[in-house]
Input
Amino acid sequence: MPEVEVAHSGAEYEWRHDEDGLFTFLGVYLATFQWIEAKLDQIILLDAGHDLWAETQDRLAKMRNEQKISAVFAAVIEGNRFRKAADRPDWRPRFEELRVRLSDERLRRNSIMHSQYLLEGVEQGFPAIRSDRQRSKGKAHFHQEEMTKDRMDQILQELANLAFAVGQVHQQLIHVVE
Output
C-alpha cells in the first residue's frame, strides 16, 4: 500500500511540549480513527444492501470495533456481494494485511484513549508522558511513553496511511458490488 504524507491545510499545528500539542494530537487521532471506523460501517452497510439499512444500523450500534473488523473481513472475503474483488489473486493477502493493521490500530487506540497523561514538567519544556496500565490474564502490564512532537507525528502518519488504505478498499468495493 502506498505511503501518504499528511498534509495540513491552512495554519500549521503549533506542536509544543505542552497540553495544547497533546490535546491537538488526541483530537486529530480520535477524529481520524472514527473516520476509519465509519468506513468499516459503510462497507458493512453496503454488504447488507439498502433494503436492510435500518436493521444494519441497529446491528452496527451494538458492535465493538473488533467485531466490525471481523464482519468486514467476512463480507469481503467470504461473502458473495464483493466476489469480483475477492476473486482477484492479490486481494486476499492485501486485505489480510489490512485486517492485521486495523486490529493493531484498535489496540493502540485503546491504549492511547485509556492512558493517563502526566503533564508535570511540560511548563519546563518536557514532553507529556503517556502512562498505560493494563491487566491481562491476571498479570499487570505497565508502559510509559514520552509524547514528543516526533512521536505524535509518527503515530498520526501511520494512522493517515491506514486511513488511506481503508479509503481505497472502500472505494474499490463500491465499484465491484454485485
Notes: Strands lie at 116-118, 128-136, 139-147.
